[in-house]
Amino acid sequence: MKNLTITVDDDVLEWARIEAARRGTSVSRMVGDFMAEMQRREDAYERAYLAWRTDERSWNAQGNAGNGAAPRKTRMTRTPQGGADA
Asked: Which positions ≥6 away from 4 have C-beta within 8 Å?
């Protein structure tokens, strides 16, 4: 594990210390957890984006390039909203 030095405003550090105490952890652990969560989200987003691009390319390669939109398989219908007057 490596150390990291950061610079934050005094009021941010005060909030972080109070929040860490409330959570029963340290500011250092809280920042590390935050960064790890951001990494997981970014990795998940990247995987989803690459899967989407791969799927789009294979769909286009099958001769369905058209306007790039997939054909609609379901019909949307408007229904009245419920309520006393409906």
From this structure: 31
Cα 86 to Cα 34: distance, rounded to the nearest angstrom: 48
- Look up residue 12 and give its two tokens: 């941010």
Find out whether 5 and 28 touch, Cβ atoms under 8 Å: no
Residue appearing with tokens 């594990």: 1
Distances (CA, A) of 25 to 16, 32, 34, 82: 10, 11, 13, 48
Q: What is the pLDDT of residues 56-71, one digit of tens each?
A: 777 776 765 555 555 5
Residues near 6 by beta carbon (within 8 Å), at least 6 away in sequence? 31
DSSP 82: P
Q: Cα separation of 71 and 80, whole Å?
A: 26
What is the reported pTM? 0.54
Q: Report the C-alpha gap between 20 and 14 in whole angstroms.
A: 10
